[in-house]
Each structure stands twice: as structure tokens, then as C-alpha cells.
Amino acid sequence: MATGREIAQLCGVSVATVSRVFNQPETVGAETRERVLRVAKELDYRPNEAARALSTKQSTMIGLVWDTDHRRPGWRHPYLQDLLIGLKSALSAHGYHLLMLATSGDAREVGASLADPVGYVNMTRRHHLGGLVLIDSGSDAEAFGTFAQSGVPCVALDVAVEGPRATYVTSDNAGGARDAVAHLVALGHERIAMITGPQDNQPSQARVSGYRMGLRDAGIPQRAEYVESGDFYRASGTAAAQRLLALDEPPTAIFAASDEMAVGALLAARAAGLKVPDDLALIGFDDIEIASVVEPALTTVSQDKPGFGVAAAKAIMAMITGAGPEAPLVLPTRLVVRESCGGA
């Protein structure tokens, strides 16, 4: 690959002129600009992003803070994979690049970890990143608060943060859960149980709140034994459903805070000799691919996963280009009715 100096020599201009062609093209005459761009294209020249950031005071590189340590399962969830596609596509369409920042429980391996958020902030400034997108892998909310207060443009996904240049994007988790319960009530269910996500996870907390609101709306008493904890993954859904179905008065319907757990509950029902939806109704949350291919197909609360990523991309780009942080954005959800709870 050619260097800026080689391009300058071939075009008979200074290195500074080559730099201005890519960073401040309006300051270079049309004929010179076209000659430099033509030679750069022929030689596959790409300007150094760090140098461009220094000269333009505006970086096109966005850091992604996401703990992908193999001991933390969050990064494997299908919901996050779909969200990332929307995020990366939206950034790429506007000339931005997404750089995953290495993370580990052992800060010695990478020089920074979520246990050391200040190290991340320093890394961001040292490499002239334009901003940070923050994805929670299970217990990162406290560290994200430090990022948000740093003054670096930050957009958190599903974690409420506040700061001078920080905002967040989330879904209407409470409203979606409330709709799920309302649907089960409309089908005649009163013994409605819930399998929650992790207790320290903000979307999980909101879905529990929505579940309780749905019961209150219907005048159905809340029963502590009808709420079991999970971790958003299938095995925990199976274990939680087994406990619920073993009750002296088991539920006739289960709302799970993720599709993965709802599928786990479906497996538990089958193992217990129950038919879904005849003996037990099920509703999940997320609308990941497996929801439509299991039998019976899963009724679920659908999140706009690609739209989630696009919204995060727009928010971070707005802050990088000089706008203040946008108000937190809550995306709507919708109930997708399939066969797992009847009434489809």
C-alpha cells in the first residue's frame, strides 16, 4: 500500500496537500484534488485514521465496550448478534468504523478491563476514538456510569446512564411484558407465572415490573411462588419451569423474560407430559429466530433489534459531530402471537 509521501511525489505536490485533499478537500483546487484522488485510488492509498482524527478534530472510529470473556455468557445471546448488525451497518453507511476494545477479567492481559473503567477512558483518548458504545454483559452498569461521566461521547444499550455527553437506548420492556400478561388474561388465564432474567439486569427488572402491572390491571393477586429467576438462557428456563410445574397449584401460563428461557420452559413442559398450549401457555421476549421455528411456534414480545442498533449509531454520531446528548430513546415493542399460548 502506498504512503502519503509517495502519493505527493507522484503528483508533484506536498505531503500537506495530500493530507488536505482527504481532510479538508475544500481548501485544494479541483484539478489538484482530482489528480491526488486518482493516483491514491490506483495505488490503493488509505489515509491513516489516527492522523485524520488529529487533523480534523473528529474521529470516525467508534469503540465498542463489551466484555466477551468466555466466563460471561452475555456475548453469545442471539439478540445481541442481531443488534450489532444494525449498529455496524448504520455506522458504516456514514463512514464510521466500529472497533471492539479487548476486555478481560484480568486487566494485565489488555491494559484495561471493566473493573478499571478509567483505563478504558484513557485508552479512548489515547487512540483518538470518537466515542463509545456500551453493551452490558451482565454486571457492567456501575462501570458504565464512570464512562458516562467522563465527557467522552457514550451511548449505552439497555443501561440507563447519565452524563454530559452520554445517553442510552432501550426497549419498552415494561410495556411489552404488560402486553404479554394482558394477552394471557384475555385468553382466560389467572395463574400466570414469570421466569425473570438476572436480578441486576435493568431490562429484566423492567419486565418484572411490567408483569406485575399486568396482573394489577387484571385484578389478579400476585403470588411470590409464581416468580422464578433465570439468566436469559435455555437451561435456566427449563430449571425454573420445572420448579413452577412442581407446585401444588402450578400455573396455567408462563411468561418468560427471554425466548431462550421460554424454549427451555417448553422442554420442561414436554418432559412433564404437558401439551403446549393445551395444558400450559407460553410467551417469550425478544423474537429471536428460534421463536418462529420451534413447535409450537412461540408467542413473543418482539424488539426491533436492527432498529436498536441504528438508533444507537445515530445517537453516537450526533454527539461526535457536535450535538449534545439526545434524550434517552425507548423503542416500542409489539406482541407477536403464534401457537404457544393459543388464540393465534
From TrEMBL:
SMART domains on file: HTH_LACI (SM00354)
Signal peptide segment: none
Keyword Hydrolase: no
InterPro entries: HTH_LacI, LacI/GalR-like_sensor, Lambda_DNA-bd_dom_sf, Peripla_BP_I
Alphabetized UniProt keyword annotations: DNA-binding, Repressor, Transcription, Transcription regulation
SUPFAM superfamilies xrefs: lambda repressor-like DNA-binding domains (SSF47413), Periplasmic binding protein-like I (SSF53822)
One Gene Ontology MF term: transcription cis-regulatory region binding
Name the record gives this protein: LacI family transcriptional regulator
UniProt source species: Lentzea fradiae
